[in-house]
């Protein structure tokens, strides 16, 4: 019986040999943008992402955010909608903090953008500490399972669970990068205390994940070496090691999303024990080539990505695109421990037919071992 | 100031270590000793930021150190501002208008570059995010900057950079201002493709790029 694309992706993630280079394409930014603007190509109007990717002959990478629902003890959550803005107040016995987000379906990512984060001054620490201590997560798999059914054996659903390491959660969702580094400098003990509480919350997520059918969870990502290197050694490496050991003991693999600049994180990354580095975005979008990354990591990490988003745009000709993909195949030959994908998505003006072109080039040149 | 015992190296060190409390103390001390505000800025604060920028370029410093140093300079400059505003001496390296382009509501990178440029001695007018091309044109007319900085995080909004350049051409302002671009999906190739004058991969290179463009 022929191996499916899902089996190929999972086998490559486990460092097992496969017959052909796996391909997991991600096009949600392109799809959401054109759905929001009613500009999907005529052929694809009314189609969903998996069916479009099947039509292109590509493997599917679909994303899912949470496999839990959030409940807060002794806290009133008040939501005020003022489209496109949403303000959420968390009223606790220790005080109130608020988060303001902006969401517009015209933007491809379909992710609420955080305009205001909960920590606005040192006065907010007690409230946020209370919130973290009184947040309860309850397993909720229905939406994830529906996506898994939609994708079937033609690809895989990557579940952002827990999505970020505890310190990355604090940096991104509690105070933002600028304030984080001021606070770490000015009030280190407060940040450390928050870190300990956040670890407790993230462990709740990991325990739900451990009991779930999720095969390939995203456990951290969205970093950049100029921002993260100083904290990566102290707070990310040991955490990712701990998470890896736990999830491996539960039969899970681990994946991180690495679409930022990686140059100075590459050596440290090897210490994390992470199985898959997804959304690999090589030069020209970052300063590192795929050949350099392969040389640094050898066969210790499965790399997923390799075709930067910008290559799908009209400024690059079809010939340049083909040349880039063929060069990529040469860089990764013989091709084991690699999953072709985009770094990190198909942009709104990216050419969808180039997704299909990758599938054609893989069929033509990337039976393993690659000898191009 | 000739004859002053003030130690610029101590002020430079306060900036390099990101110690804003010390930098403010030292600026007040320098003023008491009669050091001119212009010398404090150029020989102390800007010299400190140059050291920080060099360390960033060499890979010894990262964004956090740059942020803390920029804050130290900003706080120290607040002390000097009343004195500088009454002086005829130029105290900035140049004038920059910056913003995230239309359709893009991401500003982390733009904010970092703004802080770094201010710390390095540029006067920066931050327009914010989701800025239409017409608003950039209006700001160039109003502020007459040496440099216009355009930021985008999304591949979906990079095309707004090209639209802004075209709007400057139409308004016959293109030759009056250097345009630089940056942001996660932006590359040197893209910058050349749309006809920008420069591309910065990060905050450190943005400082070098701007200094080169204004010849300082």
Count up the helices of chain B: 9
The average pLDDT value of chain A, as a whole number, equals: 95
Determine the fraction of residues in helical runs of chain B and give it as a percent range: 55-70%
Any idea how many domains of chain A? 2
CATH C-level category of the largest domain in chain B: Alpha Beta
How are helices and strands ordered from N to C of chain A? Answer: HHHEEEEEEHEHEHHHEHEHEHEHEH
Protein structure class of chain A? alpha/beta
Please characterize this protein's 3D structure:
The complex is a heterodimer of chains A (372) and B (216). Chain A is of the alpha/beta class. Chain A has two domains: 5-71 and 135-365, TIM Barrel (Alpha-Beta Barrel), CATH 3.20.20; 74-133. In chain A, 41% of the residues lie in helices and 19% in strands. Chain A has helices at residues 5-13, 28-37, 49-56, 125-133, 142-151, 166-175, 177-186, 188-210, 225-249, 266-269, 290-297, 318-332, 353-365; strands at residues 60-64, 68-72, 76-82, 85-92, 95-102, 113-116, 135-139, 155-159, 218-221, 255-257, 276-280, 302-308, 338-343. In chain A, strands 9-10-11-12-13 form a five-stranded parallel β-sheet. The mean pLDDT of chain A is 95. With 216 residues, chain B is α/β, with parallel strands linked by helices. Chain B folds into two domains: 8-84, Orthogonal Bundle (Methyltransferase, Methionine Synthase (B12-binding Domains), Chain A, domain 1); 94-214, Cobalamin-binding domain (Rossmann fold). Chain B has helices at residues 8-16, 20-32, 37-57, 63-84, 108-120, 133-143, 159-170, 188-194, 203-214; strands at residues 94-100, 122-126, 147-151, 178-182, 198-199. Chain B has a five-stranded parallel β-sheet with strand order 2-1-3-4-5, sandwiched between helices. In chain B, helix 8 links the parallel strand 4 (178-182) and strand 5 (198-199). The longest helix of chain B has 22 residues, at 63-84. Chain B is globular and about 55 Å long. The model of chain B has no long low-confidence stretch (mean pLDDT 89). At the A-B interface, helix 7 and helix 9 of A face helix 4, helix 5 and helix 8 of B.
């Amino acid at each position: 019986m022929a191996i499916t694309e899902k089996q190929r992706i999972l086998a490559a993630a486990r460092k097992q040999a496969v017959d052909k280079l796996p391909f997991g394409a991600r096009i949600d930014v392109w799809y959401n943008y054109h759905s929001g603007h009613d500009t999907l190509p005529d052929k694809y109007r009314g189609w969903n992402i998996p069916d479009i990717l099947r039509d292109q002959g590509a493997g599917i990478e679909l994303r899912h955010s949470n496999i839990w629902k959030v409940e807060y003890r002794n806290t009133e959550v008040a939501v005020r909608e003022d489209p496109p803005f949403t303000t959420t107040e968390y009223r606790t016995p220790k005080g109130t903090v608020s988060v303001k987000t902006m969401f517009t379906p015209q933007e491809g990512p379909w992710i609420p953008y955080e305009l205001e984060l909960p920590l606005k001054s040192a006065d907010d620490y007690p409230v946020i500490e209370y919130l973290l201590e009184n947040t309860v997560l309850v397993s909720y798999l229905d939406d994830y399972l529906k996506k898994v059914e939609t994708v079937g054996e033609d690809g895989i659903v990557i579940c952002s669970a827990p999505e970020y390491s505890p310190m990355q959660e604090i940096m991104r969702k509690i105070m933002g990068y600028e304030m984080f580094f001021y606070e770490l400098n000015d009030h280190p003990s407060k940040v450390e205390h928050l870190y300990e509480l956040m670890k407790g919350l993230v462990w709740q997520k990991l325990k739900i994940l451990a009991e779930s059918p999720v095969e390939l969870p995203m456990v951290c990502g969205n970093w950049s070496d100029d921002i993260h290197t100083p904290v990566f050694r102290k707070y990310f490496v040991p955490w990712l090691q701990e998470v890896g050991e736990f999830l491996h003991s539960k039969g899970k693999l681990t994946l991180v999303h690495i679409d930022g600049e990686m140059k100075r994180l590459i050596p440290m990354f090897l210490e994390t024990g992470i199985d898959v580095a997804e959304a690999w975005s090589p030069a020209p979008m970052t300063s590192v080539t795929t050949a350099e990354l392969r040389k640094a990591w050898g066969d210790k990490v499965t790399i997923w990505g390799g075709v930067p988003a910008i290559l799908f745009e009209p400024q690059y000709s079809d010939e340049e695109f083909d040349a880039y993909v063929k060069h990529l195949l040469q860089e990764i030959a013989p091709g084991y421990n690699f999953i072709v994908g985009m770094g990190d998505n198909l942009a709104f003006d990216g050419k969808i037919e180039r997704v299909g072109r990758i599938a054609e080039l893989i069929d033509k040149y990337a039976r393993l071992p690659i000898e191009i | 100031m000739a004859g002053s015992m003030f130690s610029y190296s101590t002020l430079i060190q306060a900036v390099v270590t990101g110690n804003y409390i010390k930098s403010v103390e030292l600026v007040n001390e320098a003023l008491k000793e009669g050091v001119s505000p212009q010398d404090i800025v150029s020989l102390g604060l800007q010299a400190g930021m140059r050291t920080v920028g060099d360390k960033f370029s060499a890979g010894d410093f990262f964004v956090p150190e740059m942020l803390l140093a920029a804050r130290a300079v900003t706080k120290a400059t607040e002390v000097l501002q009343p004195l500088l505003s009454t002086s005829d001496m130029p105290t900035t390296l140049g004038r920059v208008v910056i913003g995230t382009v239309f359709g893009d509501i991401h500003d982390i990178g733009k904010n970092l570059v703004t802080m770094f440029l201010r710390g390095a001695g540029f006067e920066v007018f931050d327009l914010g995010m989701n800025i239409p091309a017409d608003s950039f044109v209006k700001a160039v007319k109003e502020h007459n900057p040496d440099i216009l900085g355009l930021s985008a995080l999304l591949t979906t909004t990079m095309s707004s950079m090209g639209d802004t350049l075209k709007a400057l051409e139409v308004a016959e302002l293109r030759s009056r201002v250097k345009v630089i671009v940056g942001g996660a999906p932006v590359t040197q190739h893209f910058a050349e493709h749309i006809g920008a004058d420069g591309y910065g991969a990060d905050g450190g290179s943005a400082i070098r790029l701007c200094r080169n463009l204004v010849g300082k």
